[in-house]
Every structure is written in C-alpha cells, then in structure tokens.
Amino acid sequence: MGPVRYRILGTTQVLRPDGTAVPLGGARLRALLTVLALRAGRAVPAGLLVEEVWGGDPPADATGALQALVGRLRRAIGAQAVASADGGYRLTAAPDDVDLHRFDRLVGEGARALADGDPAKAAGPLDDALALWRGPALADLPDRTAEAARWETRHLDALRARHTAALDLGEAERSLPELTALCDARPLDEPLQALRLRALRDTGRTAEALAAYASVRHLLADRLGTDPGPGLRALHGELLASGEPVGPPAPSGSRPAPAEGAAPPASPGSRPR
Fold it and tell me: How many CA atoms lie within 13 A of 13 on its CB side?
C-alpha cells in the first residue's frame, strides 16, 4: 500500500492508500489542512496557522480554537498525521505526497530536459505534472490570492514547456487547437503567441501565422503602447524569409481551421495528449 496523498491543486482532498477519499467536513478544516500541506514535513507556527485559516479575522480564543480544529483534523485523517512541533503543528507527510510539491518537482524535471535539448524526455514529466492540476490552486484558503497566483504562473510555465516540447517533436497539428485557446484567453502573453505562430508555420499555415502576428502587434500597441519583443519579431522575420507562398491574409479575428479529424480546441488549462 502506498502513502496517504494530499491534494491542494483544487479543492483540498485526502486520499487513502487505496485511493478512496477521506471525508473532510467544514471550510476551516480544509483551510487548516491546506496550510499544513503547503509546508508538508515542516513545522508551521500556531500564529501563522490562525492568520491563514481565519483569514485575518481570528476568534477571541484563537489558541483554543486552533487546538480544537487540529483535534478535528486528527480525528479525520489520523492522530499521527499531524504532529505538535516547535510552537505549532506539522503534517507528517513527505513533500511528494502532496500534489502541489509533486507538480513542482515534475515541472522542474521537464524544464531541465527541455533545456538539455531532449523534448521527448521532457514530455513525460510535464504530462504527469499537468495531470495533477485540478485548479484553481489552494481553493480552500480564505485569502489565497498571492500564493495561488504564484502557482497559476507555474502552471502556465508548464503549459508553455509542454507545447514547446510538442512542437519540437513535430506535433504542431495536435498542439495548435489548445495553443489557439490559450492565446485567446491570454492575448498579451508573447511566449504563448510565439508558440502559436510556430505551430501555424509548422502546419503550413504561413498566411495565418503572418495575420496572427499582425493582430498581436496591433493589440500590444493598443493596450500596452509597445511593439512585439525580440522573440516574436525574430519569428516574424523567419516567416517573411521562408519563401513559402503566403496567399491572402486570413480574415481578422478568424482562427485556424482544424485539420480533418483534429480534435476541437481544448479549454484553457488542459494539456496536450
């Protein structure tokens, strides 16, 4: 039997070794477990637990309320799962038993493989990482904005890396629908837009790639008062120098037509398959 697993990339869950979920009642209980799981294996001071679980509005007897909540959590997931330590409490779990930390490790592995020029080796850990994402991250924290934003950025980094690996492996046709959806959701994200232009070019849609570049250039000028960065400009130059017939530009606002048999565009946040 494997270890107990903790999920905080989405609503907070505890999975027994057989894969069944442990019932967790109450928003405060899930918030407490989220804070402990974020720092799995490390002591979390009682004051920090009170601040994060009650969202800056602690009860009059904060110490007693926290002790009672820890008692409820121990009854739910096991007395040995939460240890008293250094003026606070510690979730007695390895970081890899928490989906967020496992996600972070896998994204790092994929990014290193990609940097080493091995997209095939990068694809596996990146796929495994993205499969863990149920989002929104840390959904049960009362005040999750700053911490969750950091993990949303990490998720976007993983998506970019996975699509980079896909394009390097010649899978542009498969990657293009989701890249189009991601760019629709984040039109000012230049690295994503560059990946979409690459996918259009690699699938023989040079005219659509040039039209997409023009659209991005106008959008950046209108919203930010800037020109495209060096990455996009270099890609634009490659498109112009490709010598391929570009034909008439695609109508404004149009998106590439999927190839026959291709899947429809995926929703933002899904992964290439």
Answer: 17
What is the tens place of the pLDDT at every residue in 110-146?
999 999 999 999 999 999 999 999 989 999 998 888 8
Please give the residue range of the domain that contains residue 195. Answer: 172-273
How far are the Cα atoms of 180, 208, 271 from residue 267, in angstroms, in the given order? 10, 21, 9
Percent of the chain with pLDDT over 70: 88
Contact of 101 with 9, CB cutoff 8 Å: no
CA distance 137 to 92: 21
Tokens of 45: 């001071």
Q: What letter would DSSP give residue 124?
A: H
- The pLDDT value recorded for residue 259 is 39
Predicted model pTM = 0.84
Q: Distance between CA 131 and CA 117 in Å, rounded? A: 23
User: What is the number of other CB atoms lying within 10 angstroms of the CB of residue 237?
Assistant: 10
Could you tell me the CATH number of the domain that includes residue 246?
A: 1.25.40.10
- How many structural domains are present in the chain? 2
Q: How far apart, in whole angstroms, are the C-alpha atoms of residue 158 and residue 271?
A: 9
| Structure confidence at residue 143 (pLDDT) | 84
Is residue 15 one of the residues assigned to a domain?
A: yes
